[in-house]
Amino acid sequence: LTQRLSHSLRKIINKGRLTEDNIKDTIREVRKALLEADVTLSVVQTFIDNVKKKAIGYEINKSLTPGQEFVKIVKNELIVSMGEKNNSLNLSIAPPAIILFIGLQGVGKTTSLAKIGQWIKNKYKKKILIVSTDIYRAAAIKQLQILSKQIEVDFFESSTNEIPIEITKKAIHHAQKKLYDVLLIDTAGRLHIDQKMMDEISAIQTLSNPIETLLIVDSMMGQDAVNMAKIFNKKLFISGIVLTKTDSDSRSGIALSMRYITGKPIKFIGTGEKLTSLEIFHPERIANRILGMNDVISLIEDIEDNVDQSQVQTLTKKIKQGHNFNLNDFLIQIKQMQKIGGLNYFIDKFFKQNSSSQNISFSNMDKHALNKVEAIISSMTPKERLQPVIIKGSRKRRIALGSGTKIQDVNKLLKNFDDIKRIMKKIKTGGISKIIRGIKN
Ligand code: GDP
Ligand code: MG
After folding, report:
1. What residue stretches are annotated with the SRP54-type proteins GTP-binding domain (predicted)?
2. What is the architecture, at CATH level 2, of domain 97-281?
């Protein structure tokens, strides 16, 4: 996609304003990107029409091509469409604040309940009670009980002999009596939407009057998930969505479809089976993922004001083409990184993401250190810069002397260079922008 995009971006170089004509190619690429991300077809059409209407006539920023300008508008629109960063549950009500978890079977209701229970506990230090009304499988109640121990919140015991509405009544009563701040109610799902389930949830909802009713949606279900959410939203009141299993290879487009079709905010995403694998929904991250245009997006969004674009672009291109990363590139790279926000953060991010934990010593690469790096590299011959492997003992001594540094400094720099070269190899496909995305995220 990136290649296709940059091709169409390059083709259009005339500046001025966005016109139907000068964004034609880019629109096609954006449409492809949305479809590739598995955004529902009807949503793709409506979305693109809306953005197009907004974009035409828009003045083009001097440093951008019309295509880039358009992509920028698309990205903003994606973020707006998917809602504000929604990082809080509404708990402002006379206690107990009740949160109802609903959705089909196996989508991750019980797991999400535990994750969110833990999140509320850590964030708000509230007194929490959880209860299961899933009487159809004895294991379901047990499952929640086990999870309650793991997250260390209180569990209200229920049994398969009771009916859900009775359990709910008792749990609420108990929560009121014992002054719980929050009551989380788990419900039973079914494999498919059926009337009995809807009636049951509806009865629980009417009785408990929850301040939040979270629809749990399995992102692996793709378009089915969207259809399902549509029906739930029509039949029951829903205050927000939790998108689970986003760690699978599901497409991000579902987030946009979900929001467009239900109009309800996505509050959290589940990112794994562990109880800590829960994230607040960040529309910006998803927008980047949907567009998938790692290079394009970050080059225009993040680098625009901070960094010399042409240098970064050249470097990204070189790396992509398999160009041998050398010390000249290294110098450009760390200078650009500095402008964006510090190497350490990036290294942290990057290695966390890649679950590798090399001990990379970029620490304290401040202005002073950067000057040193520059001095050292300047004292090298062109050949040394291109082929740092040849820098051995006597060369090191000469370079240290020439740059007013110590041999240890030269060694350290060479080690850092090797480290970053290794990274560059790993991320050849994403180039610098992946790093920058790492920083942004
Ligand atoms: P429920 O039937 O809706 O209550 O679903 P469960 O909470 O029992 O979850 C069903 C399965 O999905 C379990 O194996 C969970 O570990 C798994 N699961 C839930 N959320 C996630 C997630 O975000 N990522 C992954 N990989 N697995 C998840
Ligand atoms: Mg369950």
Report:
1. 265-278
2. 3-Layer(aba) Sandwich (3.40)
Q: At 241, is the pLDDT very low, low, confident or very high (cuts 50, 70, 90)?
A: very high
CATH code: domain 306-440 is 1.10.260.30
Q: What is the mean pLDDT of residues 269-297?
A: 80
- Domain 2-84: assigned CATH number: 1.20.120.140
Q: For the chain, what are the domain ranges?
A: 2-84, 97-281, 306-440
Residues less than 5 Å from ion ligand 2, measured at CB: 109-110, 140
Nearest CA to ligand 1 atom 27: 273
Q: Is the CB of 168 under 6 A from ligand 1?
A: no
Give the H/E segment covering residue 32.
Answer: helix 24-36
Region 294-299: what's the mean pLDDT? Answer: 39
Query: Minimum-distance ligand to the CA of 247?
Result: 1
Helices (H), 82-220: 109-124, 138-151, 164-177, 195-208
* Shortest-distance Cα residue to atom 16 of ligand 1: 273
Q: Which residue has the tokens 């209701």?
A: 109
Q: Whose CA is nearest to atom 19 of ligand 1?
A: 108
CA distance 36 to 29: 10
The arithmetic mean of pLDDT across residues 90-106, rounded, is 94
Percentage of the chain modeled with pLDDT above 70? 76
| Length of the chain in terms of residues written | 441
Tell how far the Cα of 117 is from the centroid of ligand 2, in angstroms. Answer: 14
Look up residue 65 and give its DSSP letter: -
Strand partners, 101: 186, 214
Residue 288: is its pLDDT beyond 70?
yes
> Average pLDDT, stretch 207-232?
95
- DSSP label of 268: E
Measured from the Cα of 278, ligand 1's closest atom is 23
Please state the atom number of ligand 1 nearest to the C-alpha of residue 115: 20
309 pLDDT higher than 60: no
